[in-house]
Structures are given as structure tokens and as C-alpha cells.
Amino acid sequence: METYVLDTWYPLTWSRNVGRQLSAHRIVERDVVLYRTEAGAVVAMEDACPHRLLPLSMGKLKGDAIECGYHGLTFDCSGRCTRVPGQDMIPGNAVVTTYPVKENMGLVWIWMGDPSRADSVPVFDLAQYHDPAWSAVEGDALRIEANYLNLADNLCDPAHVSFVHLSTLGNAASEDIPVHHEELDGRIVTWRWIIDAPAIPLFAKYGNFSGNVDRWHYYHYHAPSIAIIDFGSAATGTGAPEGRRDNCMQIYACHFMTPVDRNTSIDHWLHVKNFTADADTNAALSADFRVAFAEDKAILEAIERNEKRFATRKTIKIAIDAAPRRMRRMVDRMIEGAPTGG
Fold this sequence. Notes:
Helix 2 (148-154) packs antiparallel against helix 6. 20% of the residues lie in helices and 33% in strands. It is α+β, with helices and mostly antiparallel strands.
């Protein structure tokens, strides 16, 4: 049985990293080579020459075609072989699989499933990313030695910030606040409000709040590999819980997960905020996020190691596990091809 959703758009790498050089990538346990054509389009194909299976990423880019580094077989953007040195006849099966790709939100997205379905499914988009009233800052590609669904667990879980991220994204005021969740078509939303409490360190640093705040965390998980965390604060009593957000600080922390293999994932993260900032402030904010996400990485990798060590041990379930458990069932249904609505 397939262990990944294939008919979906996965984030593969930052657009900024793809140019006129061959680059090797791995996703859902498959190897892919990427490059840009002279016109600027991104090409993705299987990273294996059909002759002796040398990775094509070890070859050369000749115009818009790849020349294999072993015997010089050459493949155009469609994966069709156009040259076999030393002979005129080109075998009919000298073809390399290519994959649909699109670019959005600073990322290259790839479709690993049935290519005939790719155009019927939109690539994820966040409207605020394109809104000139907001500012977007690209972050890193954080490699985590853990299954991407363990990372998704973390990104369906507002409760952990009260204990893991005390220097950045959480404080003790939220420890006993219940977490709510809702399953929608293809996504799960997990949230909670903390009313009349001190601002978290990140917002105290950048929001200049003089007193307590009403703050929110909404974790939007879009199956199978996207999590958008909407979190913000407004001065207590100004109406934020009722929807008045005209005087608040709001950030979308965007996590685009690449499932490399069963034990490895890459978290491409960026932040989109409702205020502009100079380069130094943006860099400082990214550095704070880097601290928080490194804390998640340490937690997730330790869990992954112990999951292998205690492979037969049954873990307990508590109330905050409800959303991650529904997330797992949602992904299972997608793999099986069943509807995901809840």
C-alpha cells in the first residue's frame, strides 16, 4: 500500500535556490533533478538516466536539456531522449519521467501523482502573502530527522507552546486553557484564546504592548503537508475576540512540509505579518522564529528516536491529542482515495 498522498502539490524547495544548475532533491522516497530553462521555467524529472541509472544531477545542462554524465545520452524538458552518442537510433523507451511543477509563495511545488490531475488542483495560496498592506519574509529549509506527520502533529497542537517556547511564542498564562478543534473539508483547525494575560515574549518585543492582551492561536492544517498558524494579540478589552482586529499585531507563520522519506522531513517556513519593518527588524524576527523552530526540531527528533527504541510500547492519549489524531485519519483517507470532509 502507498504510504504517501501522491495526488497533491508538495513544496519541494525555495524558488531562490533553482537556477541554471542541476540540483538533486528527494521527496516521498523518490529522487528528482531540478533546473531552470533559459526562459526561466522550472523543470523537474526523475534523477536517473534510463541507461545505467546514473543520477542525471551528475550530468551537465546543455541549453535546456540534460546530458548524462556517463555516456552522454541527452534528454529534453519533456524527458524525451534526443541524442545517443555513437548511434542514430534512439530507443523508444529512452524516456525520463517528468513531474508537473508550479511556483507560488517563493516555493517550487511538485506533483508526484497522476499528472493528468495536476491542473485540476490549485497550489496552496495565502492572500495576505500578496497584500501590500502585509509583509512576507522567507525563512529557512529546516531539515528534521523525523517523519513529516510527526511534524504535522506539532503543527496541530497549540498546547505545546506553553512549555517548549517560553522565550518566544508562549508563556505560563496559557497552560490550562483548553484547546478546541474542528475538521473541515481537507483541513483541521485547532485554536484557543488567552484573555487578559501578558503578551508572549515575541509580541512583547515587537508589539510594544503596555498592558495585558487578548491573544489567539489558530492552527490551520491543510492535508497533507501545509500548516498556517494565525496568531496575534490586541490590547485587552478592545474587541479582538469579537472580531475587531483593526488595532492588533497579527502574524501568519507558514510551514510547508516536504516529506523526504519515512524518517526525514524539511520544514520550509516563512512569516507574513500585518506590519512593515526594516531589514534589521525582519532579520531579528526571523532569528526569533529560528530559535523556536530549533526547539521543535530537538523535541521531534528525540520523539522519533524513542519511537524506534520503544516500537511496541503503547502511548497514552490525552485531550490535546484529538486534533492530531484526526489529522492522521484525514491523511490515511487521502492515501486511500476516500473523501476528507468532516
